[in-house]
């Protein structure tokens, strides 16, 4: 298993790290286990102080960390720096709110259960294993780690093998801010070595953000060992434009929703479902804007779309486009790799997809958008729900009845009205169907990895 920084802009290997041997993995889990015991004895106020210090460190080093993200996975530098800032904001959010989110809740009428008093309380589970992807190499980890550590848990991180420098930066972050040594420990291991870590009795639960096959595997192993799991898997999110929508604004937002993070986001809009009355207008404007995007070096501030993170990712994306082309779909713009070093792919818009095209059911992880013409609102809702995914969605309308119908009718973990899907620490995040189960962020995300204990007192 190679654990290395391979710059996606050039295709050149820049750093190779040695994987952790089994003895080192065992030692690191042991460090996290001891840290979890220590954290149980600390107060919310103490953990909040440490968390704020860690957030300040991220802010002070945002430019350098942003460049590291871009070099490892290729997103435009402004987005990488913004990712660092988002992490710091979430850390402060949990420092400010964890005690409130996890406060004891007394039963209003304890006499109804024959008690003098009764209440529930949240307690940490212990060591949580996080299996995280490369597309948001800091944010994906922090949105797990900040609430988990503020609850009194410790964490063990198995990060993607192509962002090892980000992984090791996170390994030191919390300890340097004052948390007990081992509060978050990185394991430099391959995917095949995750199973014994989940099975380790010192691991209390597991959270994974990644592909559907990875989610199936992790859930099966966690279930075998009767351990809690939270899964955030793929998405093929619909972006629905109805006849009453502001079409120009919808098209502008649609571009951002599709190409953010070079199109490599589980919650990126991927299927653009447009009412036939405004389809031609939307398609023209959306295609024009997509074709005009600047593709190039992600360290250049003028670049809007950088390379895909991996060569295999670009190959898989190109195969989806070629499958659609071969089956008669229309390529309105893009549809190929530009003549650049690295793993670039042009922003692409595809229309007239036949029912047997792979893009109908499979996730396009890159700057490729699929256009669908809906006959009416009912047809738009049918198209929105025709995939096995159910992560998030967006609907554009100025009609209150349409809004209510689509909010209720879309099968997804979230619906954004007249906007694009974004994850916020204040709102729960997660999906249904093949997009996974459980929730991250907000109060409910923090409570996922706590023991909800009932207390009855005579």
TrEMBL record:
Pfam families xrefs: Aldedh
Residue ranges annotated for the Aldehyde dehydrogenase domain, each copy included: 2-455
InterPro entries: Ald_DH/histidinol_DH, Ald_DH_C, Ald_DH_N, Aldehyde_DH_dom, ALDH_GabD1-like, GABD/Sad-like
Protein name: Aldehyde dehydrogenase family protein
Gene3D superfamilies, per the entry: Aldehyde Dehydrogenase, Chain A, domain 1 (3.40.605.10), Aldehyde Dehydrogenase, Chain A, domain 2 (3.40.309.10)
Entry keywords, A to Z: NADP, Oxidoreductase
Top-rank lineage group of the source organism: Bacteria
Family that this chain belongs to: Belongs to the aldehyde dehydrogenase family.
Signal peptide: none
Keyword NADP among record annotations: yes
């Amino acid at each position: 298993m190679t654990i290395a920084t391979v710059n996606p802009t050039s295709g050149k290997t820049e750093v190779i790290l040695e994987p952790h041997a089994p003895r080192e993995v065992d030692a690191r889990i042991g460090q996290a286990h001891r840290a979890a015991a220590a954290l149980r004895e600390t107060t919310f106020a103490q953990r909040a102080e440490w968390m704020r210090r860690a957030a300040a460190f991220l802010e002070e080093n945002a430019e350098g960390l942003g460049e590291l993200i871009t070099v490892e996975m290729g997103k435009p530098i402004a987005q990488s720096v913004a990712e660092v800032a988002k992490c710091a904001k979430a850390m402060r959010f949990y420092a400010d709110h964890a005690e409130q989110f996890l406060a004891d809740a007394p039963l209003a009428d304890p006499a109804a259960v024959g008690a003098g008093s009764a209440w529930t309380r949240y307690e940490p589970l212990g060591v949580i294993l996080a299996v995280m992807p490369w597309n948001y190499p800091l944010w994906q980890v922090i949105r797990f780690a900040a609430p988990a550590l503020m609850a009194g848990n410790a964490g063990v991180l198995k990060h993607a093998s192509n962002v090892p420098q980000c992984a090791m930066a996170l390994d030191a972050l919390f300890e340097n801010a004052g948390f007990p040594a081992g509060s978050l420990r990185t394991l430099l291991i391959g995917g095949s070595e995750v199973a014994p870590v989940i099975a380790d009795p010192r691991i209390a639960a597991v959270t994974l953000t990644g592909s559907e096959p990875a989610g199936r595997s992790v859930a099966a192993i966690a279930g075998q060992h009767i351990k809690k799991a939270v899964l955030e898997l793929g998405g093929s999110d619909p972006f629905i434009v109805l006849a009453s929508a502001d079409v120009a604004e919808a098209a502008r937002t649609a571009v951002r929703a599709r190409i953010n993070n070079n199109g490599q986001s589980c919650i990126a809009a991927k299927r653009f479902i447009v009412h036939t009355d405004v389809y031609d207008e939307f398609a023209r404007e959306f295609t024009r804007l997509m074709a005009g995007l600047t593709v190039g070096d992600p360290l250049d501030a003028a670049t809007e779309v950088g390379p895909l993170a991996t060569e295999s990712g670009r190959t898989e994306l190109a195969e989806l486009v070629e499958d659609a082309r071969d089956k008669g779909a229309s390529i309105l713009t893009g549809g190929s790799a530009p003549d650049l070093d690295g793993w670039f792919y042009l922003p692409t818009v595809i229309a007239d997809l036949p029912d047997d095209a792979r893009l109908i059911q499979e996730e396009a992880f890159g700057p490729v958008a699929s256009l669908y013409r809906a006959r009416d609102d009912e047809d738009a809702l049918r198209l929105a729900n025709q995939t096995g995914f159910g992560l998030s969605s967006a609907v554009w309308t100025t009609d209150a009845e349409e809004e209510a119908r689509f909010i209720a009718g879309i099968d997804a973990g979230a619906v954004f009205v007249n906007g694009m899907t974004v994850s916020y620490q204040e709102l729960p995040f997660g999906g249904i169907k093949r997009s996974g189960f459980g929730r991250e962020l907000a109060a409910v995300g923090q409570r996922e990895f706590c023991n909800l204990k009932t207390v009855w007192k005579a």
